[in-house]
Amino acid sequence: MFRMYQAFGAILGFFFIVAAPLSAHAALFVPFGGQIAEITPCPLNPTASLVLLKGFTTAALVYQGGTSISYREGPPLHPGQWLLGIYTTSLGGVSCPVPGAQISGLIRFHGSSK
Prior knowledge:
- This protein is an alpha/beta fold.
- It has one helix at 2-27; strands at residues 29-41, 48-54, 59-64, 69-70, 82-88, 105-112.
- The protein has a 5-stranded mixed barrel with strand order 1-2-3-6-5.
């Protein structure tokens, strides 16, 4: 009987080890943090900006006014500002056609320095 529980525990443990990364990826929420290297307004969307980060996360992320939630200090404003938050890998219909930019995702929640 004890061996049956051991086998069940091993199978259950293996399942959680294999399934955990898959379920985390399915949620599509990715943490990020870093310093803003450049901010470019999106040409066809006046409420969106392309934010290039350097530091802990090197990525090109879209900040969309009304969709992206900013805490305390407001939206990203200038290079050198630090951001910490969560982005999604899907853009959810937001368009930001900046030539040469490979967009990583859409900022969902973030906090920033002044």
